[in-house]
Amino acid sequence: MSQSCLFQNTYLFANIWTLKEAYYQILIPKNSLMKMTMRWFGADDPVQLSRIRQIAGVTGIVSALHDMPVGEVWPLEKLRTLKAEINNEGLDFEVVESIPVHEDIKLGLPTRDTYIDNYCRNIENLGKAGIRTLCYNFMPVFDWTRTNLSHSHADGSNALSFSYEELQKISDSSDLVESLPGWAEVYTPDRFKYLMDAFRHIGQDEMWANLEYFLKKVIPIAEASGVKMCIHPDDPPWPILGLPRIIIDEDALLRLTRIIDSPSNGVTLCTGSLGASVSNNLPQIIRKLGDRIHFVHMRNVAVTGPKSFHEAPHLSSMGSLDMFAVMQSLVRIGYAGPLRPDHGRMIWGESGRPGYGLFDRALGASYLQGLHEAAQKTLTFNS
Ligand code: DNO
Q1: Average predicted confidence (pLDDT) for the chain
Q2: Under CATH, which number does the domain 33-381 receive?
Q3: Which residues share a beta bridge with 159?
Q4: Which of 102, 151, 153, 232 is labelled catalytic?
Q5: Is 328:320 a contact under the CB 8 Å cutoff?
Q6: Catalytic annotation on 297?
């Protein structure tokens, strides 16, 4: 090869390399844009903010006014106080998870309008307090549901699990209510019975119609308030105990985003919820939802049979989900919002709120940041 030819080739290569770098600089968001967050349940949470801030890379908090009755307007002052408490620890209040949707809205009762008005006031208050992301769900009666809160793993740790068979054995579903903490509402036996009967007479179509009615009222307010709403998928993603569940797969998530084509009408990508159903292809769902993903819950799940699973450590090798493929897809779409490790196991003798101890979630946050760095650094034109 002549000297000039060698020079030309080197020159060409250098330019291609520079172009590629420029492509990364312009199109791929910087590491710092994805916000690593942790859920914190407020003053009653055994996990203190001062501990959370010591987890390397965690800069944001996901929280809520957990003592407010479902359906009421959250006082702006209380929201500001919570934010100040979080800021005083050097952390940002990134996401409100959740403002629960009153069951009357999900049932489409005449009383829903009052509750929707209250919901709108809450969204406005979030905007005033400078909190830009609101996670919510539209699951009837139950929020996330498990049949065992301390499923033993061989290594002596324990985690949450769900068994379809176990669920069938529960003849009185009020047992579930008593044994499962962590939901927004504590039902009296009468209220619980009323709700179970009412929802059993409602089909999927009616649930969709009621969700649409709700969204058409709240999304314009969210837009005006600078708040992005992001629905959490139903967990687990199939109907339970004769109750309709609609936010269960790719079609449902896309259908939701089409109800109102607004950036304020988005999705919480929860890998553990969607991933419990093996037909859900997470990288594909991420690609299709694109910039309508406003919040990410990342946890692994080990599917143990049809409609059965136990929660696993975050690592891909320990569950059914390819967590790296999920992270690669998020990086590829340029996801730049808040992300949190989700339920952890109880390890090292820790006890506390099921799924929400400090230790395993901290390990999860570190692992996820490793995946994120690797996904960014290995992103290629063809990947
Ligand atoms: C479970 C959580 C859910 C979630 C709500 C969002 O640990 O992911 O309870 O907070 O469904 O509205």
Answers
A1: 90
A2: 3.20.20.150
A3: 151
A4: 232
A5: no
A6: yes
